[in-house]
Amino acid sequence: MAEQGLRYPVVLKPDRGERGTGVVIARDAQAIEQMLRSCRGAVVVQAYVPGQEWGVFYTRLPGQPKGEILAITDKRVVAVEGDGRRTLEELILADNRAVNLGGFFLDKFKARLGEVPTRGARVRLSELGTHALGALFLDGDELKTKKLEDAVEAVSCQYEGFYFGRYDLRAESVEALQVGDFKVIELNGVTSEATGMYDPKHSIWHGWATLMRGWTMAFEIGAANRRAGGQELSLGQLVRLWREHQKIS
Fold it and tell me: Within this chain, do residues 100 and 66 fall inside the same structural domain, yes or no?
């Protein structure tokens, strides 16, 4: 691992996956071995990037010189705060967010459930900015700046044929993000969403409108690529791809 310029912790994830399934932050060789034994397909290994996490949804019509940031998601991981009286298990079960994944967190921290965190001590339960694993998604559209837009555009232009998707980014702070000082930890393609719509302040109508806006852009991009000579997949090819994905995921 050292030859690749990596050191612990490292992130391992299935090459084909979704919603954080199978992602492991490995801090030793044993964790890597366990992950490789359980994964049925190819595995991606990448450096662990500390900091806060955001999702930045980007779109650009083919032939246009510049795209736009459609939405920004402010991702908040799950944590509980000690009061000096209750055990970690009691804190998890009493937290409105953590209890929704109570079984998952109780199993993950089973060796520490009897601990009593001191008053004010923050115990971070999750490390991944994944909604399915308890992370809270907030609308972060107000964080958009010209410098952030320029930095995302510069990254996007490096990928020929990329017009639609959500970057998962990490930065040291909000200020660092806004000046374009970030690292990309993942890029999600046509199946990705503008996840700020899951902010509890938004209604279901807002969510539907956001999805429709994204889908409309995806179809417009597809139509433009087709007019430019892009080859579409047949129904049979799509079915075969889906079956291959089901075997691995």
Answer: no
The residue range of the domain holding 121 is 79-125
Beta bridge partners of residue 25, listed in sequence order: 11
Q: What's the CA gap between 24 and 17, in Å, rounded?
A: 12
In a domain, 246, yes or no: no
Whether 16 maps to a domain, the answer reads yes
pLDDT tens per residue across all 249 residues of the chain: 555 667 778 888 776 666 666 677 778 888 778 778 777 777 888 888 888 999 999 999 998 989 999 999 999 888 999 999 999 999 999 998 888 888 888 988 999 999 999 999 999 888 776 776 677 889 999 999 999 999 999 999 988 889 999 999 999 999 999 999 999 988 888 888 899 999 989 999 999 999 999 999 999 999 999 998 888 888 899 898 888 776 655
Q: E strand or H helix at 167, and its extent?
A: strand 164-171
Say if residue 44 is in the same domain as residue 59.
no
Q: How far is CA 62 from CA 69, 92, 187, in A?
A: 15, 48, 19
114 and 148, same domain (yes or no): no
Same domain, 64 and 174: yes
The total number of structural domains in the chain stands at 3
Same domain, 67 and 176: yes
Helix (H, G, I), strand (E, B) or coil at 96: coil
Determine the Cα–Cα distance for residues 78 and 87; give it in Å rounded to an integer.
Answer: 17
